[in-house]
Amino acid sequence: MTSMPAVPTSPPYALQPAPLETLVIPPDLDGSAGLNRSVTGRAQIAADHDLDAIRAWLSRFVDTKTTFENYRKEAERLLLWSVVELGKPLSSLTHEDCLRYQHFLADPQPAGTWVAGGGRKHPRSDARWRPFYGPLSASSQRQATVILNTMFSWLVQAGYLAGNPLSLSRQRTRHAAPRITRYLEPSVWQEVKDFIATMPKQTDREKAHAYRVRWLFTLLYLGGLRIAEVGANTMGQFFVRHDADGALRWWLTVHGKGDKQRLVPATREMMMELSRYRQHLGLSALPSPNEDTPLVLPIGATASNERAQTCAPLTRAALHAIVKDVFAGAASRLRERDDAQSARADLLEQASAHWLRHSAGSHMADQKIDLRMVRDNLGHASLTTTSIYLHVDDNRRHQETEEKHRVDW
Q: Organism's domain of life (predicted)?
């Protein structure tokens, strides 16, 4: 979206949602005279208006891409809602305004203004970009509130705001949900695998896409990888080592969320799928140490044109789009086969890449894999390699994962 033209300094004017980097806010809404601005004169940031204050807060997270993008998304949504919907600066928001915003998150209306068509993500420079892709679930609403509360608290601490309008919300003790709800039960997961197995392979491009999809879903499910981890890691991070009995076991070192590192068991099935994908690309069956080839490659990357090792990895948005297209295709196939399956098809259409991670964890637990091993596979705890006893545990974790957690294409 291009930068907006000069905006009049008094209503009426039409302000439309735009990304923070191109957003132009008229002077009476920019927060320079916000009602909640601190009057102590002890500001610790050089921000004269709300946009600069938000940028100062976000600058603390630029080195952590996923955190930065999540925090920017929530700050951006609230700022846009404040100036577009309420016609008031973010630094004038009251506790009552914040309560209204929480209701808005559950159903952003009018959809044409706030929601991207078809729920698809568009680049931030695209005119079709919108702040939302649909209503937020209850858990996403809570996450948004937590992030915004953090932002407001920091702006108060920085001397920009006089108070945090969210701090008045009643803090409830939340009990953990009895089970993960955003996951695919085994029968629905089977529908996804069946759809992938029937993907067209008539042309070279179709064949390359089918191989790529199968490998991507193997990584997301068998490895429990986050979508960002697929783009940020390489094939050279697979390595082999001997266990205490002399057996060779493959592992994948994953650099993940919060810049933490973990070891993911690369089971025989995963390594077979990796070899299958690599050989289709004209690469050697197994990667070499420190090989820079991305875990998932763009169409057209092959060993013959040397693009495999040198091409940039697929973006998170591109990987998301591939996964969503597969889920949509599986849902459509399910509906065509049986009208009575509409509820399961609806579930598939809601699913995202992260559902595969939840599905992996749930299915491992269902197969009675020790929950401590599930935790370590998914990276819910720091990786520790300093104790010989933990190395023994790693070997057992690898064996149980290999025996009980399978794709079974």
A: Bacteria
SS3 content of the chain, % helix, strand, coil (to 5): 50, 5, 40
Determine the average pLDDT of the residues in 385-405. 59
Yes or no: say if 311 and 293 are a contact pair by the CB < 8 Å rule: no
Comparing 25-39, 210-224, 260-274, 307-321, which segment has the lowest mean pLDDT?
307-321
Fold of 186-404: hpI Integrase; Chain A (1.10.443)
What pLDDT score was predicted for residue 385? Answer: 26
Listed residue (316, 327, 377) closest to 352, CA to CA? 327
Cβ contacts of 113 within 8 Å, gap of 6 or more: 16, 17, 84, 130
Nearest to 179 by CA among 362, 394, 392: 362
- pLDDT over 70 (residue 394): no
Compute the distance between CA of residue 343 and CA of residue 400 in angstroms, rounded to an integer. 34
Whole-Å CA distances, 153 to 39, 57, 147, 266: 16, 11, 10, 43
* Residue-wise pLDDT tens digits, 361-375: 877 777 776 666 766
Given a cut of 60, whether residue 396 has pLDDT beyond it is yes
* Residue pLDDT, tens place only, 157-186: 999 999 999 887 655 545 444 455 677 888
Q: Find out whether 209 and 199 touch, Cβ atoms under 8 Å.
A: yes
Encode burial over 227-255: b for 16+ CB neighbours within 10 A, e otherwise: bbbbbbbbbbbbeeeeeeeeeebbbbbbe
Secondary structure (3-state) at 130: coil
For helices 353-366 and 316-337, angle between their N-to-C axes, nearest 10 degrees: 70
330: buried, middle or exposed (CB in 10 Å: 19+, 13-18, 0-12)? buried
Distance from C-alpha of 402 to C-alpha of 397, rounded to nearest angstrom: 8
- Concatenate the DSSP letters of all residues of 301-313 into one string: --TTTTHHHHSPP
Question: Of 106-110, 119-123, 222-226, which range is least confident?
Answer: 119-123
Classify 204 as helix, strand or coil.
helix
Helices (H) and strands (E) in the chain, counts: 15, 3
Compute the Cα dihedral for 38, 43, 44, 49 and give only its sign. positive
Q: Residue 381 and residue 367: Cα distance in Å, rounded? A: 21
